[in-house]
Design a protein that fits this description.
Layout (H helix, E strand, L loop, with lengths): L4 E5 L7 H14 L2 E9 L2 H5 L9 H19 L5 E7 L1 H12 L3 E4 L6 H7 L2 H7 L4 E4 L8 E5 L4 H17 L2 E8 L6 H6 L1 H23 L5 E7 L2 H12 L3 E5 L6 H4 L3 H9 L3 E5 L5
Parallel strand pairs: 1-2, 1-4, 2-3, 4-5, 6-7, 6-9, 7-8, 9-10
Antiparallel strand pairs: 5-10
Helix pairs in contact: 1-3, 6-12, 7-9, 10-12
Length: about 290
């Protein structure tokens, strides 16, 4: 896997430090530059504090860049390859930084908000996950992934995310498991008995398709487990991640005629708010 650049978003808090260490370690494994991006958001508070003057005043800018660099050094023990300061909204500022540095990976810390606050007002990381400017990692820990899960709904778009998972597994030496959530309607117990044979055929076909999909996406040299899960996508993936010790879950941002596609936005947002592991959201172009 060849990553030219990783952009690490930070608010300079201790909460973001594990994401900095994740970016540094993965950057070293992938041979990628790490650029630390800090966005001064457009607000009345920032205007009153004269924070917007930073970009126009060389001395203030230099001090601000030194502060960002020192934060990263304290978090990781090394200096960043570059610092990028922006005055903008969080989404636009990070999108500009990704484009300016040709980054293929954006790393952020999970939201520090409570679950209720996420439901009511959302969070910056959840908003960005709904329309990421490039592949987005929400780093819940600071270590290299040892076990990666790649979720697929069998759409062409999700194959892109699976291929990305395979590349990352090869680069880091992580174990890999291909995941598919098969959703069937809830039926009364007596009707489940009547349709038992049909359900078994459905799951058998899903397992066969998953095997073919994984082989095509991961390519040669990658040995992956395969699991067909049952239920709603976000609940089944959450349960599997917790029960089977995933370090990173990889999924496409959207798809067509699929559970993940129909729940565009809600699946990434809900998983970011609830999963104990890191998440890699790979944007997929609509066709």
């Amino acid at each position: 896997m060849s990553e030219s650049c990783i952009v690490l978003a930070t608010d300079l808090s201790a909460h973001a430090a594990p994401a900095a260490r994740w970016a540094a370690r993965v950057g070293a494994a992938l041979g990628a530059r790490v650029v630390v991006a800090h966005v001064i958001e457009i607000s009345l508070k920032s205007w009153l504090a004269s924070r917007y003057d930073i970009l126009a005043d060389d001395e203030k800018r230099g001090r601000a860049e030194a502060r960002v660099s020192e934060w990263y050094r304290e978090a990781t023990g090394s200096a960043p390859d570059a610092v990028d300061l922006r005055v903008n909204t969080c989404f636009n500022g990070l999108s500009e930084a990704v484009q300016a540095h040709g980054a293929s990976l954006l790393v952020m810390a999970p939201t520090g908000k409570s679950t209720l606050a996420q439901i009511v007002v959302g969070s910056r990381v959840q908003d960005i996950a709904s329309r990421p400017p490039c592949a987005l990692v929400v780093a819940a820990s600071d270590h290299l992934p040892a076990r990666i899960g790649a979720a697929t709904d069998f759409s062409p778009g999700s194959a892109v995310a699976m291929a990305r998972a395979g590349e990352l597994a090869r680069a880091t030496g992580a174990g890999l498991v291909a995941l598919h959530v098969a959703e069937v309607p809830d039926l009364p117990a007596f009707e489940e008995d009547l349709f038992a044979d049909s359900f078994e055929t459905f799951y058998a076909e899903a397992r066969e398709t998953l095997g073919k999909t994984a082989g095509e996406a991961f390519g040669d040299g990658v040995v992956a487990e395969q699991e067909v899960l049952h239920g709603r996508a976000e609940l089944a993936l959450d349960e599997y991640a917790r029960g089977r010790g995933l370090d990173l879950l990889v999924l496409g941002q959207t798809g067509h005629d699929s559970v993940l596609g129909d729940m565009l936005g809600s699946v990434p947002r809900s998983l970011i708010g609830r999963l104990p592991c890191s998440i890699l959201v790979v944007p997929v172009e609509r066709t």
